[in-house]
Amino acid sequence: MANILCVEDDIDISRGIAEFLEHQHVLDFAYNGKQALTFIATNSYDLILLDLNLPFVDGLDVCRTLLTTQLTSVPVVIMSARNTEKDILAGFDSGAWDYLAKPFSLAELSARITVCLAKVSNNSSSKNEINLNDVTLNCDDMTMSFNNTSTQLHRVGFELLKLLLQKAPNTVKTEHIHRFLWNEDTPDSDPLRAHVYKLRKQLKTTFGQEFITTIRGVGYKFQLDDQEK
């Protein structure tokens, strides 16, 4: 049973979530962004359900605030009527672990919660670092280090690099990456390509190389420049 904060200004939606999840988890409810930040600062949560269109402080700003504090270990599932590709990518860029477009079924919400909590459990029980040659991925603070330089990763970028490092030097199929990141619930816009592009740009700027190689028609692999043929 997990401690969950639900941040939702629609009373009917909050009531439905409460009725569906109250026998599975311990729930707190915040109805605006300021209240959410107060709850987060004074309580410990295993997961946060977060609407975006909130009074006082927007949900994305709440998520960005968390990114500097607890988001490396506390998953955030965004629940929002904003369902364009731009909105979804903004949610993931702010540090969210998952994005659920309204309207959604409560059973699907429960399934997303289960997946996120399982990832937290797996991360906490696994080795805190993944090393490959001179590359180190720190699973505690979601940083990547190479040649005495490091960079802070967002959640999706961290999960993607973690998967590719664990499978290196093999290629990871695109379908497998989708299932790993979104549990077969990939948004219709298919944001993987955009995430890979942004991650490559970040790594190129920081380290001088992209590390992620596209295998056309198959997927992606982790590869150092000096490993390329």
UniProtKB/TrEMBL annotation:
SUPFAM superfamilies according to UniProt: C-terminal effector domain of the bipartite response regulators, CheY-like
Response regulatory domain sequence ranges: 3-117
Native source species: Pseudoalteromonas aurantia 208
Spans traversing the lipid bilayer: none
InterPro entries for the chain: CheY-like_superfamily, OmpR/PhoB-type_DNA-bd, Sig_transdc_resp-reg_C-effctor, Sig_transdc_resp-reg_receiver, WalR-like, WH-like_DNA-bd_sf
Alphabetized Pfam families for the sequence: Response_reg, Trans_reg_C
Domain annotation OmpR/PhoB-type: ranges: 127-224
Keyword Transcription applies: yes
Residues carrying 4-aspartylphosphate: D51
DNA-binding region location: 127-224
N-terminal signal peptide: none
Protein name stated in the entry: DNA-binding response regulator
Gene3D superfamilies reported for this sequence: 3.40.50.2300, 6.10.250.690, Winged helix-like DNA-binding domain superfamily/Winged helix DNA-binding domain
